[in-house]
Input
Amino acid sequence: MKIVVAYKWAANPQDAEVGPDGTVDWNRAKGAVSEYDPVAFELARTLADTCGGEVVGLTVGAAAIDSPLARKAALSRGLDSLVMVADDALSGADGTTLAAVLAGAVRAIDGVDVVLAGESSVDVGDRQVAMTLAAQLGWPGLNSVRTVTADGASVVVEREVAGGVETVAVEGPVVLAATADAALPRVPGMKEILGAAKKPTQLLDLAALDVAAPAVTLAPVSTARPDTGNRQRVMLDASDLPAAAAQLTAALRQSGVL
Output
């Protein structure tokens, strides 16, 4: 079984600065594997180890995603190899464009059975790239995935649905988006980091993938801080718990919550 982990090399939001008007300055933010993606790495490695498979990392983006640091950061997380599409034409690309390029890259990798991804990206967070990728490939796509196992020719997936958990068996290639708590990601040690430098990396040419340009271009119009609403600022004295409970109930009723 060949498993591809689609991940994003993104600016670390801990380094970002937010202005008074809500604009975010990413100039000083350093790149890192998007924090939702290590779960996908872990699920893929576990699945490959149990069924004798191979794990291939896949990332697309601006030319800056191809650096020794970026390669080691991904390859030290249980990957067997890495495929990259690094082109400045993808700088600031929206999710639809990234999904199209990912689909072209997946088609360029022989014999892919499963594509795993995190449920979102730390920088944009639109939660739609994995399912758009599935549509581009013409494969089934499942999100909210908690576990992935192999059963013969099928991949068995547990996923969160409204009201419970659904178990699905899929034969044939599939795209899966994992929940943030689906697995406990490993922390690469020195052995894994040093070993990452010896693993193969393949660079794909964006032009050779023949990815069609999106029909619609998206551009941010404005940004703003979230509306915090009007806080009631009701203080309760916890020294008398029954009285505090009564005051809390009255305050909630007055605000329309109860």
Summary: The mean pLDDT is 89. The chain has six helices and 13 strands. The CA atoms of residues 33 and 73 lie 7 Å apart.
